[in-house]
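Reminder: ligand-aware prediction takes two inputs, not one.
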Amino acid sequence: MAEQRPSGGDEQKNEARAESEPGRASAPAVRFAHESEAEFARILDFYGVAWKYEPRSFPLRWEEDRVAEAFTPDFYLPDLDLYVELTTLKQGLVTDKHRKLRLLKEIYPDVRIKFLNKRDYLRLLAKYGYGPPSAEAIQAIDRVLITEAQLQRRVSELGAQVTKDYKGRAPLLVGVLRGVACFMADLMRRVSLPLAVDFMAISSYEGDKSGAVRILKDLDENVEERDILVVEDIVDTGMTLNTLLSYLHARHPASVRVCALLDKRARRLVDVPLDYVGFEVPDEFVVGYGLDYRQVYRNLPFIATLRKDWMEDGPWQMPGIVRPKKAPRGKKKRPK
Ligand code: IMP
Ligand code: MG
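Here is what comes back for the chain with magnesium ion:
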């Protein structure tokens, strides 16, 4: 990855990667019997919950001195002192498992064990405080690129830098909706200057590959002779920012600078100047901390990538998320 602007971000990037893969350390090469077990381990790793895979067999029935039947729970979670058996398998197996569970509870009354189907275990994680706002959303997340703590630390640094650079002036922060909501809210509270805030909303023309953008919400403030700091969530191709900058420059501000939380530089088509950058991100679609995928995931407190297999239908599988109806083709209302 290339260097970050304006200063010293490499450390943060590597740390983000290390923090997002805690499982590497705890279990480097476990062979799981079932895909759902691997997924469960992945989710546990994701939240830094320690686990052991099939660490203990409980004898359930003896013939003479020989163990005739035993039960080996899938996981043990030491921090919760809890054994977990996943029951996402066939119904026939589940019935037999429940019989074993009853036996186990009789023979080992002090052992804490839970049978979990998929929904149950997502709820369990949420209950123990390991979940982002919605337990359903975690199924869709691939990896956390930037943690909440890293975001907060970097935004504080940016705020301090802006405070220093604009000393004696009162900048007008111009945010680009809607992805900038979290970043703007945090950044403005880290700038110790008198400042004003305004927002614009911009959209690319649907189906237009030229990158043309259209203003959905204009500024409320007059920008003439003002020091403008454009605040962006992410700069990807640079088309949006490029249009916005020409628009602003045409209105004769005293100065214009850009503060972008994320820089997806690998995809840049238009060379736009970025004065402040939070983090450089790889060429992958990211969500969270204001950024959405089809309007979902904005409320995640971190920046994450999505699982490819969830990008198509994932959001619509969540309770309460309504799939927007597609407009019937060729029936757009035209002014007569
Ligand atoms: P650009 O005009 O290609 O630079 O795109 C900028 C806008 O596209 C951003 O302000 C976002 O709204 C959106 N965008 C680009 N990449 C991502 C991403 O990875 N996640 C979410 N939104 C993105
Ligand atoms: Mg945006």
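The CA atoms of residues 5 and 277 lie 6 Å apart. The pocket of magnesium ion (ligand 2) is lined by residues 176, 179, 233 (CB under 6 Å). We will return to this case in the review session.
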